[in-house]
Amino acid sequence: MDKKALLTKLIIDDTLTQHRIPVHEELVIALYEDVEISQHIDFIINKIKTKTAEKITPQDKVQPILLLLPPARDLTSEEIALPEEKPLKPGQIPTHSSSMPTEKPIIQRPTAKITLSNAKVGTAFNSTLNIELNTLEIAEIEAVDVPEELGITFDHESCCLVGMPTKSGNFTLVIHWSVNAIRYQNEVLLIINPDPRSLWQINEPPADSPYPKAHIDSKLILEKDIRIAGASRRGRSHEHAGTFRDDDFYIHHDNQSQWSILIVADGAGSARYSREGSRIAINTVSHYLKSQLSVENAAFKPHLEAIHQWNDNNAINQVGSFFAQLFRNAAQLAINNLKNEAIHINEPVKSFSTTLLATVSLRINNELFAASFWMGDGAIAAYGPAGKVRVLGIPDSGEYAGQTRFLDDSALNDAEFNRRIIIGKWKEISHLILMTDGVSDPVFETDNGLQDPNKWTALIDEISPCLASPENADNALAEWLNFFSAGNHDDRTLVVAW
How many CB atoms within 10 Å of residue 423? Predict the structure, then answer.
């Protein structure tokens, strides 16, 4: 084990033991892969090297090989007594013995320090074998005995271990090396870490769990000039724990009014029945929005004319006020239904906590009008033309990872509530996208990343093959959502209109 890996292991093991922190595979992997911990370990190692170098004198650095020779004899002053020879018997052959025995010099074996990097199953491995002798001489590595079927070989020319590891565990390598034409060998430990993906289990929730929900869901709308696909799947953390998916989504297009409705919701992971909370919020809000945007709603007609004209600032402000009230009413209805369900099963309403991101849109010739409501984390954006993005809201990120705002009375009564609603009308919009944080976190990483057009372009490029065959876009997106990203194992939901 190299010095960095050993130091990391000792620190992590000691910390977990002293503070009695419950240990599980996902935690240990996260600690070993943490970049900041690795940087601190590098700092400690470099500090030790610097302090050590200050204490070593030039005489300490050179340790010559010792030759153990017999003591010198003064032949001029010392009388040499030859052993008395006994007379030979008939048939006996005479023997010749040296009058002074010769002692061969003893060469002390150099101490070798051999280091190599840790490997990981399924990841290309290329590690230089470094050997340092306490005599400061230059040693040559001649061969390495590697256990069979490990997927690793020794490249003599580069003095590297190379390959694609196939097994995880601790393995002993035998290093054959030489110095001054004398051959030696040492055993060295090679640590091959498992592929984190192989540690995840897929477990089913208990059969009698309330509020069951499908692990994967997808829907597709294909109409004239209208293409909307949505997909949601259970995250690896829920698979491993044997719990249900907390995310939910809804897509709809009204052929009469030509309005489209796109909604995603993410139940709070810490809330016991958040999977039902997201479903209740989705169903309530979608039903209300459909009724208010239908052709039968005469009160909406003046605002519809303003949306088509889009040349009167006063009328546009009225449109903004209409959608602010529309989303407030929808949110209030959803909160009421969450409270009713909590009362029905005698649970706190927080057990049904959920985020809610909703957008309604209308295609008018080559323009797109959209009004969005954003409560919680995740993302909503109108993308297009290529390389340009309009993020339709502000994510509710807290002071620590995973903290956000949920749909409740306090959020609804906030004086800044109307800032959660954004309206706009733009040309050349190619994609309208909504997602939960299970997608936005690994793709954009930070709130600032959400504003980066390059990251949005990269996302569009990545999902474009899924949308290339519209009749199968929902299933393709559901499959794409299964991508692996270290440290990001939440439910994932994505809705796209393109």
Answer: 19
DSSP 8-76: HHHHHHHHHHHTTPPP-HHHHHHHHH-HHHHHHHHHHHHHHHHHHHHH--HHHH--PPPEE-PPP--TT
How high is the pLDDT of residue 101? 55
Q: Is it the case that residue 441 has pLDDT exceeding 90?
A: yes
388 C-beta neighbours (distance < 10 Å), count = 15
**What's the half-sphere exposure (Cβ side, CA atoms, 13 Å) at 419?**
9
Helix (H, G, I), strand (E, B) or coil at 300: helix
Token digits for 98?
């040296």
How much is the pLDDT for 244? 97
Q: Which of 460, 388, 455, 394 is nearest to 421 (CA)?
A: 394
Give the tens place of pLDDT for each residue, 151-209.
999 999 999 999 999 999 999 999 999 999 999 999 999 999 988 777 789 999 999 99
Residue 212's alpha-carbon distances to 205, 275, 309, 353, in angstroms, are 9, 8, 46, 17
Q: What does 465-479 look like in DSSP terms, one character per residue?
A: HHHSSGGGHHHHHHH
The CB density around residue 194, as the number of other CB atoms within 10 Å, is 16
What global pTM score does this model have? 0.69
Is the predicted pLDDT of residue 79 greater than 60, yes or no?
no
C-alpha span between 443 and 437 (Å, rounded): 9
DSSP 207: T
Tell me the C-alpha to C-alpha distance, in Å, between residue 480 and each of 155, 377, 471. 38, 21, 16
pLDDT of residue 293: 96
Burial of 226 per CB tally in 10 Å (0-12, 13-18, 19+):
middle
Question: Which pair of structure tokens corresponds to residue 475?
Answer: 């299933």
C-alpha span between 261 and 251 (Å, rounded): 6
pLDDT the model gives residue 23: 67
Rg (CA), the chain: 36
Strand partners, 390: 382
Per-position b or e across 4-39, b if 16+ CB within 10 A of its CB: bbebbeeebeeeeeeeeeeeeeeeebebbeeeeeee
